[in-house]
Specification:
The chain has 28 helices and 16 strands. The strands form five sheets. Strands 3, 4, 5, 8, 9, 12, 13 and 14 form an eight-stranded mixed beta sheet that branches. The chain has a two-stranded antiparallel sheet with strand order 1-2. It has a two-stranded antiparallel sheet with strand order 6-7. The longest helix is centred in the last third of the chain and has 26 residues. It has a domain of 95 residues. The mean pLDDT is 95. It is of the alpha/beta class and 722 residues long. Helix content is 43%, strand content 11%.
Amino acid sequence: MNIKVKKRNGTSEKFNIEKIHRVINWAIKDLSNVSLTDVEINAKININDGVTTKEIHKLLIESSANLISIEKPNYQYVAGRLLNYQLRKDVWKGKHAPRLLEFLQQGLKNKIYDPIILEKYTEDEINKMGEFIDHERDYNFTYAGIKQLCDKYLIKDRVSGKIYETPQFAYILIAAYAFINYPIETRSNYVRKFYDAISKHKINLPTPVMAGVRTPSKNYASCCLIGVDDTKDSITASATAVSMATASRCGIGIDVSKIRAIGSPIKNGEVVHTGLIPFLKIYESSVKAWQQNGLRGGSATCNIQWWHYEIEDIVVLKNNAGTDDNRVRKLDYTVGMSKLFYDRVLKDEDITLFNTAEVPELYEAWGTKDFDKVYKECESKKLKIKKKISARKLFSLIIKERVETGRIYILNVDHANRHGAWLDKVTMSNLCTEVIHPTIPLNDYHDKEGEIGMCILSAVNMLEIKNWQDLEKTCDLIVRFLDEIIEIQDYFNIAAENFAKKRRSLGIGITNLAAYFAKNELKYTSDKTLPIIDEWMEHFQYYLLKSSLELAKEKGKCEKFNHTKYSKGILPIDTYKDKLDDLCKRKLSLDWEKLREEIKQHGLRHSTLSSCMPCESSSVIQSSTNGVEPIRSLITYKMSKMGKLPVLVPGIGKYDKNYELAYDLKDNSGLLKINAIIQKYIDMAISTNVYYNYSHYENNVLPDAKVMKEIMQAYSLGLISL
């Protein structure tokens, strides 16, 4: 048999089965319960004359990936090694890494990196940074992790598919670009420390940061919040802002509650208002017309308050009933709630829905202590457009749509204002409901007086933190990193830049909580877990505040620090629900009073510091469980544009028996308690999910009363969003 294969360099050679064996043996080295034979047989290699070695290698990768299972988890490392081998061949053109300076110069020639790096750093500094790199860390990735990097985060030509970098080069350059403006005498040390933290997976970076920092496309914010006023100029400006923000990689939250109701008179009755739905279609089109730098499609959540006249029509917009003319299915929806609404549900009383244009004072009072009083006054007014409905009827409708679509969210606006860090009023949240910001609607797109809420996110990977000292150092690195990102990123709009640079809001969360629980034999459903997560979150928030305080001493407090409760000496430990003290009786262990006095004296560099985001996509890189969520299965298949990825939870074969599966939970009570303890310390919100297994209920029907009860429980525990 004289079959020849074509090598990557274009030359041909005689096919040699031993070369395949050598590669597989290298990939399975030191791994248990894997075999060369399984990989080779499963690959079903059909050797035809002229086949390329790259095609053969691709079959080996696919074969190993298809063997990944709970019973044989180490195939995720076999497939990962093989994919990494291919990546290095494609990028390095060989087995050995080029020097960082040479690699960077080639990247600049290809116009994939921001040229400012060679203006700011000397060649000696870059060579020193090259010594920090440990390319062996690439082999810590599972197949899912390295594949996700290749598909989504490493710089590539998204037309040809050509990838330009390997993981460790990406990590070192993210660190180098972020700390580019630090003093020469300290920046190299921060680059090294941050590189170590992200390459060892202590820190989770969100998609815009991971994909963008080091490139000429300087769009790093994960989310923005846009308010809309009841004018054609504001509606038009906000639609443009939605388009530009989506194109800049942001997820969108938008509050449309100030827009007047359907049937309202315009210009003394010359025109009858069309209502919200036609404008929501504009926002839907603005979001879906744009891709976020080729990485993901745009997404937006529309915020509407429970007392808005059109609330009944808005909450059904995602369902499959109706026609395209009266549905807006590609937006998600968040309903702003408050105690008054819940009280009337419990008492089975009516509520009144209003046209915001007729009662502007109601929106002004929304989210403040005056709301209940103003609402009742409005109920007694004679108005052209208002109606009474049963509070329970509306709540049932919200629950029905929430259960059927999974995309109707709850924002407890009074909790957001009571416990959040802002003195300015909050009426809305972001795409995933973990960020709460005040906004000022635009009167035109270039309105310098407007404010678009911006937030840059990151998270601590709990499983990789060794002790409190390690957590403190990691928190400091994240705070410093994100603070620099605020300065070096581009902004799509002056109102977004005003918010970001004057308020300097950060949203730092935790991720891999389920794995942390499993490794430490903790349960979402056990009250014994509460003091442990309480202690963890106390240290987490304390260290974030301490880092922001130190930066305020170094660089000055944020310009709008006086718009935060922190400026009054009010901390999250002062505003959580008293009920939590009955759940968890652990006493604070850190010196909060000293911290309080220092914050009052020096201020903070940032208006907010903490929120818990989903980490749905970025967690795949680290093969971690996402955010604060319980797992749904020991193995899941993450869907992307590039196909499906098998993702195993951490600890298979070690502590996988300790995991609680989300859909095995009999109810969400334990999960809500855990989230409430987390909420106790953070100064924004949590992207909180709940889970229902219909087989747990009679006739496989989920009772409305069950869902109502858990939403009420979440409110009673002080949760801001659900």
